[in-house]
Amino acid sequence: MSKISAAITAVGAYVPEYVLTNQILETMVDTNDEWITSRTGIKERRILKDDGKGTSYLAIKAAQDLINKKGLDPKEIELVIVATATPDMKAASTASYTASEIGATNAFSFDMDAACSSFLFGMSVAAGYIESGRYKNVLLIGADKMSSIINYKDRATCIIFGDGAGAVLFEANTENLGLQDEYLRSDGTGREFLQATYGGSSFKLTAEILEQGGQYAFQEGRTVFKNAVFNMADAAAKILERNNLTKDSVDWLAAHQANKRIIDATAQRIELEDSKVMMNIQKYGNTTSATLPLLINDYESQLKKGDNVIFAAFGGGFNWGAIYLKWAYNSK
Ligand code: UT7
């Protein structure tokens, strides 16, 4: 019997309508378009303006986009994973609500949080369920309403993040397409440099903390940047080496969209030309768990069956890694 691998067989996405441009940010904090563009590559990001709608709203829309494109019966979905750092609430999971709302009534579901690496780690988890032979398909959604934890008076964070969601369907494959190899790592000593602290079980959200804006995300950008450049590039290089891939045999790099300079550094490390580097940071900024599926959704029409795609991410925790995946279909 041939080995079962886990292949991506469909993609969907959703971004909210409201566009927060660099020009608008110039009126909110002490910053300017030139600084943001040259330091990050970001021109605009999407924001879900409605306070009554959370990450599940984005996740449901992305999943419905996939379901419609694929013509999938949601009752056939066996597992729904929502990768997110901004769940609707601390309990119950965003995934359970999302699964019910999309009609995946025969599935079980759970959330996964590894900050900006949530989707990358989610790919590993989704693939593991399928490779075990116990499940035929898994719907993996990366969704974040980052605007819910961003202080729009803090120029160090508000220029970077945006809201969005993307979804992929993993299915069992017997042609050896799909996930081939992974290199994933965590280092908890990095957590002090990037976190949304208060409201967690160790850090009570008091009235005083709220007054100081302690409910928002904080990052020491320069330290995160240095670690991101080193580790994301290193993980990508390791995955190439381990699989005897050369720069010519890699067709695409899908790297977490946190900063164009970090993506460029990763591409340079594996000597990949610009035309093979997926990039949409200019449109969406850093959507945390949604960057990777938003990338493959944007590039879906250019991806060909058998293409070698390298996924890479780095984020809070610290968590990082790279995944080598063989693309499984030509889009219609
Ligand atoms: O996705 C999860 C992982 N997150 C990341 O990967 C983010 C990693 N970090 C970064 O992308 C970058 O560190 C930032 C984009 C956040 C910042 O860029 P940087 O080149 O590291 O800038 P910096 O923090 O070293 O600040 C340089 C200068 C400072 O001024 P002085 O001290 O040199 O006078 C900052 O105060 O730029 C100033 N600055 C700004 N100026 C205009 C910081 N933020 C801004 C701003 N507009 N928004």
From TrEMBL:
Name of the molecule in the record: Beta-ketoacyl-[acyl-carrier-protein] synthase III
Organism, scientific name: Algibacter pectinivorans
Gene name tied to this protein: fabH
Q: Annotated region ACP-binding: where? A: 257-261
User: What Gene3D superfamilies does the record tag this protein with?
Assistant: 3.40.47.10
What InterPro entries does the database record attribute to this sequence?
A: ACP_syn_III_C (IPR013747), ACP_syn_III_N (IPR013751), FabH (IPR004655), Thiolase-like (IPR016039)
Q: In the record, which residues are listed under signal peptide?
A: none
Superkingdom of origin: Bacteria
Q: Name one GO biological process term.
A: secondary metabolite biosynthetic process
Main localization is cytoplasm
Q: Listed GO molecular functions? A: 3-oxoacyl-[acyl-carrier-protein] synthase activity; beta-ketoacyl-acyl-carrier-protein synthase III activity
The record's similarity note reads: Belongs to the thiolase-like superfamily. FabH family.
The record's subunit annotation is: Homodimer.
Free-text note on domains in this protein's UniProt record: The last Arg residue of the ACP-binding site is essential for the weak association between ACP/AcpP and FabH.
Q: Where in the cell is it found?
A: Cytoplasm
Pfam families the UniProt entry points to: ACP_syn_III, ACP_syn_III_C
Keywords attached to this Swiss-Prot or TrEMBL record, sorted alphabetically, are: Acyltransferase, Cytoplasm, Fatty acid biosynthesis, Fatty acid metabolism, Lipid biosynthesis, Lipid metabolism, Multifunctional enzyme, Transferase
Keyword Lipid biosynthesis on entry: yes
